[in-house]
Amino acid sequence: MGPRRTRRPTIIDVAERAGVSKSTAARALTGSSNITEETRDRVVKAAEAVGYERNHLAVGMRSGRSGMLGLVIPDITNPFWADVARGAQDRAVKAGASLLVFSSDWNPEAEAAHLRTLRRARVDGAVVNPVSDSFEDLDRFGLPCVFIGSSAERFPDVSSVGSDIAQAVRVGLDHLVSRGHVTPALILGPKSRLARARFLRAVHEHCVERDVDPAVLAIEDGEYTVEGGREAMKRLLAQPRVGHLAVFAANDMMALGAMMAVRDAGLDCPRDVSILGFDGIPSGEFAWPGLTTVAKPGRDIGERAIECLFDEIDHKPEHRRVYMPCRLLERGSLADLSAAAPKRMAGAGRI
């Protein structure tokens, strides 16, 4: 049996095992950008092999940083936001930082409380999805900050990352038209949310380009939840209509709720009702039928937001909005009526 180790491994042990200098090993473990990936991987493996753990307290005392970051999202139970959190965590860990994650539950007061907690924890910075379109706590936050979500666009002086909503809605509508669904009904979020306005603006622009009167589209609002989509779908089904009903929901949770309402009414999706979602959450793949959706890059948004936050912390921000493209995931919730559908329609009756 070999001798017992009586001291904690140091950065010198890591450097010797990786075959690099002490300063190179330290930069590799703190996420410095001027280190090659090959060197970083070698240093990380060496640190794991010798059992090295950074002394965050000592590092913070020397650098003035805690090595901790914050993330405040509106709903951790929504798989999309969980995906954002996973991407943020992966990028933070890669840089040797820890991430504190909070869910505001769409409550501005809870959000403000979480921000106060992050200040007390002395995090180096935070990524926040403002649940209010008038984010009044920014000046009092006093830390480097990056916004995510639609509300971020109201703050041009703050770096932000989000989905390209206009591109995403166009992708969804183009696919609906290609399937013969010329004037789909819409299930949107609350009127108080900027995301709803962004979505609706993109719909209107698409309609005008195709010489379709946007006023003919049936619209129901609801919360961004399964139950919100279920209730909105019930109201749509109660309206008089002729022929097949197609619905574009503003997120996948609402779309899944809409599918439940269709089943509750004794109807079939997609035979009687076609439904298109928006987010790309994994549970849509396991619905029956599988939910066709426009997928937002949740994990990529989380990773990119943390990268922007590091720029903020290092005092080299660009203060711009990063728009990330979305893609269509074709599953089974849309009927194909393209053989019988007209390519243009103006002044059509309400769905």
UniProtKB/TrEMBL annotation:
PROSITE patterns: HTH_LACI_1, HTH_LACI_2
Single GO term (MF): DNA-binding transcription factor activity
Keyword terms of this UniProt record: DNA-binding, Repressor, Transcription, Transcription regulation
Xref: SUPFAM superfamilies: lambda repressor-like DNA-binding domains, Periplasmic binding protein-like I
A Pfam family that the UniProt record links to this protein: LacI
Domain spans labelled HTH lacI-type: 9-63
Domain of life: Bacteria
Protein name: Catabolite control protein A
Gene that encodes it: ccpA_4
